[in-house]
NADH-quinone oxidoreductase subunit B (Humisphaera borealis), 190 residues
Amino acid sequence: MDTQTLPDNVLTTQLKKVVNWARRSSLWPMPFATACCGIELMATASSRYDLARFGAEAMRFSPRQSDLMIVAGRVTVKMMPVLQHIYQQMTEPKWVISMGACASTGGVFDTYSTVQGIDQFMPVDVYVPGCPPRPETLIEGIMAIQRIIDEDGLPKGPRRPLQLAVEPSYVPTPQPAGIPITIGGRPLSV
Ligand code: SF4
């Protein structure tokens, strides 16, 4: 926050900055997890990655108490009206993360029954790539939303979807060489 320190630890700032700081530090996600990406979403909230560090661990399964929808997994045509209905019930200002290849593009499910990208039917603010995305990448996506809230003024009417894409920030490392693979204590022969 852009603040000024006064004697006796008194801080001054603008109301807008305090409001935005409170909003970005208390995101309440509405998880719409339909497939394997949902497991990675659960891992993000668990102790190892600890989404609570960013104030966004209070998952709500009631749309009226949520302001961040995370769509994790594939969405079928039959399911889409339900997703839209839940989105409409969420309180403004609200944001949407499309987590994983299936939610963003249909992934490998190039079939008539799978929606080939939820952004055809609802606004998406941040796309998190991967199949599944790692928890770090999802956290990058949530932090992107937080940066948007920080830079935003107080909300004025409906917003347009922001359509940002997060790039993975980690580099996969190869398996260490020289470690034998065993099954039941016996070496694996390939
Ligand atoms: S993107 Fe991959 S991990 Fe995520 S729901 Fe689709 S198939 Fe599963």
Notes: Strands lie at 4-6, 10-12, 29-33, 68-72, 95-99, 126-128, 164-165, 182-183, 186-187.
